[in-house]
Amino acid sequence: MSSSGSYFRLPGGKPEKGEASIEAAIRELREETGLRAYDVRYLFKFHASKVFRIRAKGDPEPGMEIHHFAYFRPGRDMEVRVSENTLKILDRYYELKERDSK
Q1: Is 71 exposed, middle or buried (0-12, 13-18, 19+ CB in 10 A)?
Q2: CA-based angle 45:10:77, to the nearest 5?
Q3: Strand, helix or coil at 59?
Q4: DSSP 8-state code for residue 58
Q5: 3-class DSSP assignment, residue 16
Q6: Lowest-confidence region among 43-47, 69-73, 75-79, 95-99
Q7: Domains of the chain
Q8: Cβ atoms within 10 Å, residue 70
Q9: What is d(CA 52, CA 92) in angstroms, rounded to the nearest whole number?
């Protein structure tokens, strides 16, 4: 997760003209963290956004509008403030992950 203000959020943004959502997700991750995607999977739609799970290589470095990083571990109290929508997306992701593992 990254912070550009008082709350941490997942990397993301809107597609540029003519850009597919998957391409935008890869580009935004690179711009915001410096990470290079090598495995991208569409997960679900959240409001008007498409959510992807991206496996990436590299050492994250804050870029563009990002100032700080935090790592989320399920079941642990967060020491940082996370946006409500980010928490909803993470909850849904872990529900899907748990269901798929059965």
Answers
A1: exposed
A2: 110
A3: coil
A4: S
A5: coil
A6: 75-79
A7: 2-100 (3.90.79.10)
A8: 13
A9: 12
The token pair that represents 52 in the structure block: 């992807």
CA-to-CA distance for 34 and 102, rounded, in angstroms?
34
- Cα separation, 93 vs 79, in Å, equals 21
pTM exceeds 0.85 for this model: no
From the number of C-beta atoms within 10 Å of its C-beta (0-12, 13-18, 19+), residue 32 rates as buried
Tokens encoding 53: 């799970």
Residues 58, 35: contact at Cβ < 8 Å? yes
User: Would you call 38 helix, strand, or coil by DSSP?
Assistant: strand
Model confidence at 73: pLDDT above 90: no
